[in-house]
Amino acid sequence: MIELTGVSKTYDGQKQAVTNLSLTIPSGKIFGFLGPNGAGKSTTIKMMTGILPLDEGQITMNGFDITTDALEAKRSFGYVSDSPDQFLRLKGVEYLNFIGDLYDVDTKTRKERIEHFTKEFGIFEVLNDTIQSYSHGMRQKIIVTGVLLHDPDVWILDEPLTGLDPKSAFTLKEMMKEHAEKGKTVFFSTHVLEVVEQLCDEVAIISNGEILFNGDMKEMKKQFKEDQTLEHIFLELTNHE
After folding, report:
1. 172 in the Ramachandran plot: left (φ > 0), alpha (ψ -120 to 50) or beta?
2. pLDDT per residue over 3-50, tens digit each?
3. Please, are residues 67 and 53 in contact by the beta-carbon 8 Å criterion?
4. Which pLDDT score is estimated for 84?
5. Where exactly are the structural domains of the chain?
6. What are residue 63's phi and psi, to 5 degrees?
7. pLDDT greater than 60 at residue 228
8. Exposed, middle or buried, 181 (CB in 10 Å: 0-12/13-18/19+)?
9. Fewest beta carbons within 10 Å, which of 35, 37, 49, 154?
10. pTM of the predicted model, to two decimals?
11. Where is the ABC transporter domain positioned along the sequence (predicted)?
């Protein structure tokens, strides 16, 4: 479970990026986080993961405070950022072993998971190549594999399907469903509204740093018109901001 309570963030003491944001993302759910560019999605996610400090409020991961219990909180989640251009000079296998060392994944489990997930994503054969030689999609796959390697309870995925080929995107979506079915948590941001309609149990829409809607898809349909698509609802909400 992820809980955000009264979270705010200001840049340079002037630009209010997120204002008094509160969300509860329950276990056993796939939770979609939507908003136009500059809405506050990435800022919120960076606060959730401890990359940015909070100005106000509290964020907990499975009961651990991201500020005061940072190490335990960070052990409970895996994070895929919106840019996979990381550790470019490492070989793919070196990066995955680095992640395995960070999270104390034993040698046998590590080897099995690396082989399984990289074969699922079609990158097993390039593990001895440097990440800088990978395409954008391949870099995305190696970062996602790193998240799956230590089997965290909470997945935080920022635009995880960007750059993935259709087969790999399908594979990841199935993994997200399986993770939630195990009673664990998937939180992901996306611009692809169709994916939200396919996958999400619950959704929040953010604009100008504030939550405009938070609930399940049925509640959203009730609040608006039953025959409206998520695209129409999203545009109706954000265009009035």
Report:
1. alpha
2. 999 999 999 877 889 999 999 999 999 999 988 888 899 999 999 999
3. yes
4. 83
5. 1-76+152-159+182-241, 83-151
6. 90, -10
7. no
8. exposed
9. 37
10. 0.89
11. 2-233
Q: What is the amino acid identity at position 31?
A: F
Q: What is the amino acid identity at position 144?
A: V
Q: State CA 21 to chain mean position distance.
A: 17
- Helix or strand (DSSP H, E) at 230: helix 230-239
By the 8 A CB rule, do 87 and 95 touch?
Answer: yes
Residues near 125 by Cβ (< 8 Å), separated by ≥ 6? none
Query: Encoding tokens for residue 79?
Result: 């994070």
Task: Calculate the CA 185 to chain-centre distance.
Answer: 10
> What is the DSSP code (8-state) at residue 106?
-
Residue 238 one-letter amino acid: T
Single-letter code of the amino acid located at 1: M
Q: Give CA–CA dist 171/117, Å, rounded.
A: 10
Taking residue 232's Cβ as centre, other Cβ atoms within 10 Å add up to 13
Alpha-carbon gap, residue 171 to 198, rounded angstroms: 14
